[in-house]
Amino acid sequence: MATLRHSYIAGVGHYVPSRVVKNAELETMMNTSDAWIQERTGIQERRWFEEGTDTTANMGANAARKALEMAGVDANDVQMIVFATLSPDYFFPGSGVLLQRELGITNNCPALDVRNQCSGFVYALSVADQFVRTGMYDTVLVVGSEIHSSGLDKSPEGRGVSVIFGDGAGAVVVRPSTTEGQGILSTHLHSQGEFAEELIVKEPGSNRDNRVQYILDNQADLYPYMNGQNVFKHAVVRFPQVIKEALDQNGYQPQDVNMLIPHQANLRITQYVQQKMGLTDDKVFSNIQRYGNTTAASVPIALSEAVQEGKIKRGDLVCLAAFGSGFTWASALIKW
Ligand code: ACO
């Protein structure tokens, strides 16, 4: 069989809504405290979308424009869109087609929505990588975008979940690598449906006799439920596992990693993974303090900021890793 080509990330960008919500503001709504939130999660503030300005699709488009500009690619040269979100604009159709329209892409390229929550962006990147590696497409736009704030229970009952999540978007452009040894070396995807209900928004579920009536009568299940301690327990095992899988496959050791970009789930989870891998602070990127957990948007926002801040240089070994609802987990190892 002929050797498959590699893909690489030719451009990256992000967008976050302008409204900053500090922990002190949440104290006024949900019987919580800045000290509790910072101690358990590391989060100091997050962004909440502006109704009438931000949508999941247009935030993704804002991030995508920056990624396309960095890649030097015209929007109409995009050959495929892969859009990761757990908070789509509509029940259907997916947000990928809305982003296509928002960007003025008129070439009828395919738009695929990926629903893998916190692992969504790494899953979406893997899809793009496969299409580019096989030669099917030369330019794939991968987007992660989320609006959590409109779906959170902002009363005291929701405090265990609602202090964690924030809104934002990130995007990358994936193209064939022209430099030997440069690009996405491998991706690794996993799931374990046994734990599907441990982190879930249950309604509106389709398996009801009359789902519209059901949600009118059972509104509580429209809010996210999370078994936080069980999520934590699994996350600290799966993150190191899937990172090791990527390093082993490519013959690298943890100390070879120049930058680990973990899904920004919780600062305590990231610190645990960092310690387990024996990485110094300068090799692990964290911005959860400023954005909270933005699920499918968190990895591309972090990657975009790391690149912007000059923390990733050409030739660096960069590892992306994620874990979340499903449970799902994933990694991507990249020679930048
Ligand atoms: N403010 C103040 N008190 C709170 C809050 C809050 N926001 N939320 C819960 N509490 C209280 C609880 O009511 C409880 O009180 P009690 O002892 O009187 O009953 C106490 O704090 C401890 O609650 P726990 O749920 O046991 O708190 P825990 O130490 O487990 O921390 C947390 C909760 C932060 C959610 C933790 O379990 C965690 O980090 N889990 C990982 C989940 C995660 O990161 N999810 C992100 C999404 S999934 C992903 O991205 C991988």
Automatic annotation (TrEMBL):
Q: What is known of its domains?
A: The last Arg residue of the ACP-binding site is essential for the weak association between ACP/AcpP and FabH.
Subunit organization: Homodimer.
- The active-site annotation reads 118, 263, 293
| Annotated gene | fabH
PANTHER family recorded for this chain?
3-OXOACYL-[ACYL-CARRIER-PROTEIN] SYNTHASE 3, BETA-KETOACYL-[ACYL-CARRIER-PROTEIN] SYNTHASE III
The Beta-ketoacyl-[acyl-carrier-protein] synthase III C-terminal domain sits at: 247-336
Protein family membership: Belongs to the thiolase-like superfamily. FabH family.
Q: What is its EC number?
A: 2.3.1.180
**UniProt cross-references to Pfam families, sorted A to Z:** ACP_syn_III (PF08545), ACP_syn_III_C (PF08541)
The record's principal subcellular location, in a coarse class, is cytoplasm
Question: What compartments host this protein?
Answer: Cytoplasm
Q: Among its keywords, does the record have Cytoplasm?
A: yes
Source organism lineage? Bacteria, Pseudomonadati, Bacteroidota, Cytophagia, Cytophagales
Record protein name field: Beta-ketoacyl-[acyl-carrier-protein] synthase III
